[in-house]
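Re: the request from the purification team.
They wanted to know what the chain is likely to look like in 3D before they choose a buffer screen. I agreed to run a prediction and write the result into the notebook, where they can find it.
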Amino acid sequence: MTRLTRRGALGLGAAGFSAAACTTLGGEADYGGNAAFSHGVASGDPTQTAVILWTRVTPEAAGPVPVKWNVARDAAMKDVVKTGVFITGSERDYTVKIDVDGLEAGQVYYYWFTAGKASSPGGVTRTLPATGMADYRMAVVSCSNWPFGYFNVYREIAKRGQSSVIDAVIHLGDYIYEYGVTGYGGVVGKELGRNHAPETEIVSLADYRARHAQYKSDPDLQAAHGVAPWFCTWDDHESANNSYRTGAENHQPETEGGWTERKAQAVQAYLEWMPVRDPVPGRPREAIWRKFDIGDLATLFLLESRLVGRGEDLTFDEMFMAPDAERPAIAERLKAKINDPQRSMLGVEQEAWLADALKQSTAAGRKWQVLGNQVTMAKVRMPDLQSGLSADKYAKVSQGSKRYYSTARYGFEWNLDAWSGFPQARERLYAAAKAANARLVTLTGDTHTAWANQLHDNSGQQRGVEFGCTSVTSPGAGDSVPFEELNWLMPEANNEVLYYNAFAKGFTLLTLKTDEVEAEFVKVSTVRSRNYFASTDAKFIARKNEVGGMGGLQKIMGGPLVTSG
């Protein structure tokens, strides 16, 4: 039996724990063919007594493959506590996903898979604590577009997981992107020799499966999955850009078929390839909202804001294309649509579930109610670039960016694809938080920029705080408006925005404590080279009030402070 060290279990050694290089651990499943584990291992959705374990086996020959899974208490993998066999095949793209139950709360476990003589890398996972107020640390991440650069952010998360700095990872969506090599990111991908496969935009089930397989072939992503359990939810690019219940901006029915069919293919591939629990029976397969209690400390709510309840996509296109004299009237018609009380982000069922679950969390005495949310919640308007930039710099801003930044002149919030396009739904969420006396900590991805925001309802009462993580690789606002003034023009223009970084690539390290929440904004120096260093750009804390609610955000550090090399 090959001894697996902790470093090997995390997949971070020089050679890792290679299926080709190691003998079988824990005996062989009854499989006589040759196979490999080329896409790593992952765990997710931990509870106090269970966790999802995931891998994908690649057999030389088609047909059913019995895969043995093993769970141990120790890094040497001698104290095996759970084992079993999962039979996979082409009907699920040879993925393996097991909901292992009967585990102990608040424990570290080590796991691996075998198929015949092939062994997977080893992984480390953790169950949630049943009680207590111990600190809980999560790396919050989103928007990992393959061709735009190397996954150095995942590598940095893996390093910190190896050092037990993090307990879990939250991925807020855009884990994959749907574009082909001529689409978004294709030019940079060609420069780096790192472009999408398949080469065309993904539409079919085979396409979505192949794209997931490409992303999970990345060693840095594999390493990050191997060090901690992940809590995952999707945003739009797991299906198509700016998706909603009945369509998407990047879906053309005349050439790409029906949206219902494409959505179903995207969801099936996601559920096959990601370490998430399938929706409970009776729900649509895309209804992946769920919650997790972290001891007595917090409840984490993972929201679904794309495919179940989201209303039709609204844009500024008509206003931008009209003559200047006609724009005010068009703007008023658009505002009426935006403010329709029937307009929904989450849908009736999920709104009711969240309102009830918030009350359950606070009634149980949990200190924090954390929303794993995809898009920006704060009330944000675009800054005036013309007055904020020098004449020379403003002249270099593209016409498209100038139009987009001009929306504040007509009284609009900045992004109709975010909660800004669903203001009545946002107020309903805030009302639910008020009724529950919740302390909302909203986590946000999508924008490829870093945010620290204070959230207020329409009466001006603070309802929580928001921490927006920047991207793994996808370009932010600073890539289209490459002037450092942008980082302070946005906070100056918005009372709810305290911190904004339009240039960084990185993640947010969120630490939940009994009396405060700390958000550390970590950035990497580059994603265009595999050589990088990481630093802390800023830290913020929010403290709870004893009478309920929470205090405002306080900045406790402004970077850069180099934290690793």
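For the purification team: Confidence is low (pLDDT under 50) at residues 1-27, 559-565.
Please add any questions underneath this entry.
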